[in-house]
Give the backbone structure.
Amino acid sequence: MIEVSNLTIRKWIDFLFQIVGLLILFLALVTLLSLILDLSTKGLHRIDWAFMTHFPSRFPERAGILSAWVGSLLVILLTSFFVIPLGIAAGIYLEEYAPKNFFSTFIELNIVNLAGIPSITFGLMALGFFVYTLNFGQSILTAGLTLSLLVLPIIIVTTREAIRTIPQTIREAAFGLGASRWQVIQHHVLPYSSGGILTGVIIALSRAIGETAPLITIGALTFIAFLPPNPLGTDQNFYDWIFSPFTVLPIQMFNWVSRPQSEFHVNAAATGLILLLLTLVLNAVAIFIRFRFRRRIKW
């Protein structure tokens, strides 16, 4: 009788937990949809070809986001170039190669702690080290390195968690057939864990593209009426664009929201929709790549 009563209580607790979880999920979705509808109502009519191809202006009807969305793409491109190979390599080393001792445990704890540090701290560190010590200046390179350090712990942690899901028996079978450790990682561990690793990359880059505080700290411009040098131009060095001043979509939004004119607030809403769309496109590309990896493994 007591066992039946305990089982009934557990079922009711499980049912209540499901109901609470669904309510929280519904509340989060309603909040997100309300924010998207609010942005769409205010700024959707402002999005046109001129808005995408014009530079910022002190006249709201002439202002555009050309320098902002180009700057965002270049910063995210440079961030991806630095953080993806470094984060995945660090996760592989810590999970597959590093000895389990006090030193590796100390590194793991610090990586987890870095994932929770406020982003402004990374901006202050980058200002002192990249801008003034290494003399990279207030450039796209500094922004890419700053955001790389910001999201690096996320990719390391998710890479390690994805690798841990691979059964140890797969490794043992490969070792038994004479494969080296790197061959096991290359041909078995990485292909089967690629879905989880790419999920971590998606989360990391989605956070990076919306960051504002560290970029303001390192001196990103709030008003910029030119594009970085064309790397394919005949009179330009290929790497000149890396050291160019920049702005990004979140900073452009911050600039317009801080102005008293309501027309600039409309521009900020339109910029928010573009930023949301850009994030969704990047996520869709990463999800497509992940799907292709899984399909290739399946077949």
Notes: DSSP finds eleven helices and no strands in the chain.
